[in-house]
Amino acid sequence: xxxxxxxxxxxxxxTGYYITNNLSxxxxxxxxxxxxxxxxxxxxxxxxxxxxxxxxxxxxxxCFIEKVLRxxxxxxxxxxxxxxxxxxSATERMTAMFSEMLFENLRTENPDSIQKVIPVxxxxxxxxxxxxxxxxxxxxxxxxVMIHSAAPSxxxxxxxxxxxxxxxxxxxx
Length: 173
Fold this sequence. Notes:
alpha/beta, 8 strands, globular, disordered N terminus, 16% strand, four-stranded parallel β-sheet
């Protein structure tokens, strides 16, 4: 499993770009000293952008988080929708996720970048994603990119979410 995660290719549906852990990066960030995709459209796209991510503890979500934090050091925050599961709170699940082998390089080379991932308590199956009013305001006022990578069996009204991001109305499902 861990080997597959390291070699995984992640496709971000919102941009159509492909990110892979096997890229020859060739550039280093002057801030972190880590490899970055300075010349890539992906790095430029995520520069300064805040991301709202569903499914962040799943296979694709983990790969996406690791790659963006490692390769795009100027990314804003990643607001990760997370729920309690199997007796663990959302925060415990996120902490456990960052202790996995996939995040080893990130933990050693740039541990502060992990703090850009902000857990947002909720559930894609709940009305309004189960967000509190405070979290709803945080997301609608600060997010530039939404990536829905929750399990395929999860049904979510994406068009309603996108409409609400482009209008002044509050987020509703």
